[in-house]
Amino acid sequence: MARDWVPDTAFGRWFLSTDMWLQRVLARAIADLKQLAGTNAPDSFNRLMDVGCGQGRVFSLLQKTFSPRQIVGVDIDPHLLERAAQAARQCGCPVELKRSSVTRLDLPDAYIDVIFCHQLIHHVANQEGALRELHRVLAPGGMLLLAESCEAFIKTWLVRLLFRHPRGVQKPAEGYLDLVRAAGFVFADADVRIWTPWWSLPDLGFTRKLGLVRRPPVATELLVVARKAPG
Ligand SMILES: C[S@@+](CC[C@H](N)C(=O)[O-])C[C@H]1O[C@@H](n2cnc3c(N)ncnc32)[C@H](O)[C@@H]1O
Q1: Is 52 in the pocket of ligand 1 (CB under 6 A)?
Q2: Beta-sheet pairing, 192-195 with 45-51
Q3: Which of 53, 91, 162, 212 lies 20 to 30 Å from 107 when distance is taken between CA atoms?
Q4: Which long-range contacts (CB under 8 A, 24 or more apart) does 187-192 make?
């Protein structure tokens, strides 16, 4: 597993436990993905996997938003999974936790109906292998809800200073979309949102607010709702 894992900094672990991350980033991504999925989101299904679930901060929100009968939380970090076990006890549906790399999921083929994958892929060196595994464990017709940070954000000096990632594997939005397509998922242009939130700008958007920078910002964040073709 060590090969698949670059442990984050103490700051990174702390930041992901803040309310700012929960409200401004995680909850916002769930709301945006739900909106992007629109009427294609299944009303009733068995298993939602939160892959790279970390501390399990959104198990309850995922349950309320998508109403799965069960959540499967997967992460490679055993310490984060201990905290996720506490979050699992507060959730309105059963939560199964697994310690596993996304590149070698300890799950049967076609076991999952919906995958929520939030800010995981840019942490993984073998991104092709990760997407291949997500496709394998998803049931035919199942849905992948993916939110990723693009290289323009991960390569900023502030992110490099404060967080740890594998070097040189992050991609622009189009690169991630190619990866998702190459793994066998299908999606249309309307299933994609590429944007630049204020928190991903190197100066948190101050120079733009002051009118000092006018050129359009480079895209830093990607949301995509993709499907595994029905069998
Ligand atoms: C930026 S955090 C995102 C956590 C959570 N999804 C969130 O948004 O709060 C990335 C997570 O991916 C996990 N991770 C890193 N490499 C992994 C791998 N190869 N397989 C599974 N999880 C991994 C880390 O332990 C961490 O919890």
Answers
A1: yes
A2: unpaired
A3: 91
A4: 187/224, 187/225, 187/226, 187/227, 191/36, 191/224, 191/225, 191/226, 192/222, 192/223, 192/224
Question: Which residues are paired to 97 by β-bridges?
Answer: 73
Instruction: Give helix 78-90 / helix 59-66 axis angle, nearest 10°.
Output: 50
Report DSSP state, residue 134: H
Task: Out of 3.40.50.800, 3.40.980.10, 3.40.50.150, 1.10.760.10, select the CATH number for domain 2-228.
Answer: 3.40.50.150
Atom of ligand 1 nearest to the CA of 163: 1
Residues 200-226: pLDDT tens digits?
A: 887 888 888 888 888 878 899 999 999
**What is the chain's mean pLDDT, rounded?**
94
Confidence (pLDDT) at 11: 96
Which residues, at least 6 apart from 222, have a Cβ–Cβ distance to it below 8 Å?
Answer: 146, 147, 148, 149, 150, 173, 176, 177, 192, 193, 194
Can you read off the two tokens belonging to residue 167? 């070097």
- Is residue 119 lining ligand 1, measured as CB closer than 6 Å? yes
Buried b (16+ CB within 10 A) or exposed e, 61-78: ebbebbebebbbbbbbbe
d(CA 74, CA 179): 21
Q: Does 1 score more than 70 pLDDT? A: no
Can you read off the two tokens belonging to residue 38? 């629109």
Which amino acid residue places its CA nearest to atom 3 of ligand 1? 119
Is 58's C-beta closer than 6 angstroms to any atom of ligand 1? no
User: Could you tell me if 116 and 59 are in contact, meaning their C-beta atoms sit under 8 angstroms apart?
Assistant: no
